[in-house]
């Protein structure tokens, strides 16, 4: 098995996790949870999304969350990332002090249309506009539906490669390969990532797996074997459907970290302290915790 | 990736799953569930355990369940397997018409003592006695704690190899490599199975993974890559602790089958019909269903 000594993790719970929670989470609770994640070792956090509150009311406090967390963190080296759907969001994220923005383009035309009401080409043009407007903004390009589209549009790997190359040529810090609907199989992950990394170095890529069908960690293992060393996950496995217990969301940070540690792969995350974050989430967030390690973190 | 075209699955829900359910499941309900599993394509079922009802009251109807299911199945080719802890259980299982028995010896002395109050050597002697008494009984030797012991006893792979060889020399049909406490990491699975299969053909082995820490499918993937083609799983992911939702038990048959099918690996199992088994379990069994695919089976 081809395993690295250390990997990086982006904690996406405060963005991808929280945005799927129906009941509003108080701003002060969000901030407290994020601070506890930093205490648990998180070095890269997708902290919020500068999306119109009409579409995602949960993110209406994006500015306040980002500004407050930035103040609290002080000079600790933590990358605060904000997702933005468009130029307006990018401007707001920069104003509030985001270190990095995540800009999403779906590799499926149908999904991109449904998600941001643009063609893929229009989305790239908007990204160019963002760069013109914001100057040297550090950005990550997320390629949604890399491993499967909810509208069953076939996404050829050549398109993923082309989009990734275009993103890198525009200066993207990282390219995210996102399994938006949790449908990737290990074989698909192997085939797609090995094709991509024939043409570009694996160090440019981050995987974003959902655990909808329970294959999240198996897919991560395959990505590790293909030399990917950067992963996104959400504490507590947040991001699933609150009405279907067991229908998990993002891969859970604690499940991911436990698997990595059990193979002697270092992360910056302390599993015991992650257990404390989960306790706080249970107290403050009305969403079931569906990860496997949630109750076992403190026993490791 | 080194993947087979077809694999075999032993459905262990009626034994390993049910025995962890606190409330008694009515005998007629057990039988109905097992019959539905057969309808869903199960060809190998660990149907019950001939253990003393004082230790596992849930299994007090072992004889009745086995006899009734055998009658219902008629001449359909389904292997009915019964777990036995000792010679007495083996005799009862044979009398009731089990096709195959599973006999468990733990690779950890401490766990074997706790489980059956015998040394490993005494357990092998009992197996010899069973063979003398029962003649040409078809048996599977399950090596509990192959990948980790709850008492932290270190189990050298050389001991697993020695025990497996001894089992095969005694005529074992299969050797089960069991991750009794769900602590195996993919790296551990790789290391142990690759060592074992240097000395014996992979076709002798069946893996039995628990999903306690969410690594069950990742571990299965590694085993597949090491040429294992025979897996145990429990419908609904039964076998977990009923007081800790998310603390999963056996890997869920539906999660396993979905992963295999999504990589074009054939099984005998129909995912849609497995969804019907799960509906019945929800109705009849007081235990949470914690698998990922439980609510998605019928959408595949």
Automatic annotation (TrEMBL), chains A, B:
State the InterPro entries in the record.
Aldolase_TIM, HMGL, PYR_CT
Q: Does the keyword Metal-binding apply?
A: yes
Q: Where is the Pyruvate carboxyltransferase domain?
A: 7-275
Q: Which domain of life is it from?
A: Bacteria
Q: Which SUPFAM superfamilies match?
A: Aldolase
Q: Note the PANTHER family from the entry.
A: HYDROXYMETHYLGLUTARYL-COA LYASE
Return the protein name.
Hydroxymethylglutaryl-CoA lyase
- Origin species, per record, is Maledivibacter halophilus
């Amino acid at each position: 098995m081809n395993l690295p000594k250390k990997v990086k993790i982006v904690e996406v719970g405060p963005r991808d996790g929280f945005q799927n929670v129906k009941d509003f989470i108080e701003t002060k609770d969000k901030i407290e949870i994020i601070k506890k994640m930093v205490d648990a070792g998180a070095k890269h956090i997708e902290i919020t999304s500068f999306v119109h509150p009409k579409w995602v009311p949960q993110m209406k406090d994006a500015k306040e969350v980002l500004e407050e967390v930035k103040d609290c963190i002080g000079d600790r080296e933590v990358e605060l990332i904000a997702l933005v759907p468009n130029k307006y969001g990018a401007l707001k994220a920069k104003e509030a002090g985001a270190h990095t923005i995540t800009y999403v383009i779906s590799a499926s035309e149908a999904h991109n249309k449904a998600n941001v009401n643009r063609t893929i080409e229009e989305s790239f043009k908007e990204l160019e506009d963002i760069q013109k407007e914001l100057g040297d903004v550090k950005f990550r390009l997320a390629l949604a539906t890399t491993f499967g589209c909810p509208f069953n549009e076939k996404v050829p790997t050549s398109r993923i490669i082309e989009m990734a190359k275009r993103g890198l040529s525009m200066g993207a810090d990282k390219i995210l390969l996102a399994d938006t609907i949790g449908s990737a199989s290990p074989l698909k992950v192997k085939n797609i990532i090995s094709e991509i990394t024939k043409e570009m170095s694996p160090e440019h890529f981050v995987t974003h797996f959902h655990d909808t069908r329970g294959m999240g960690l198996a897919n991560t293992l395959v990505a590790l074997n293909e030399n990917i060393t950067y992963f996104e996950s959400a504490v507590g496995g947040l991001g699933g459907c609150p009405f279907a217990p067991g229908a998990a969301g993002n891969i859970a940070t604690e499940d991911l970290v436990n698997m990595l540690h059990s193979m002697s792969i270092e992360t910056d995350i302390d599993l015991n302290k992650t257990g404390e974050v989960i306790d706080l989430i249970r107290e403050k967030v009305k969403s079931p915790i569906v990860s496997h390690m949630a109750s076992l973190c403190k026993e490791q």
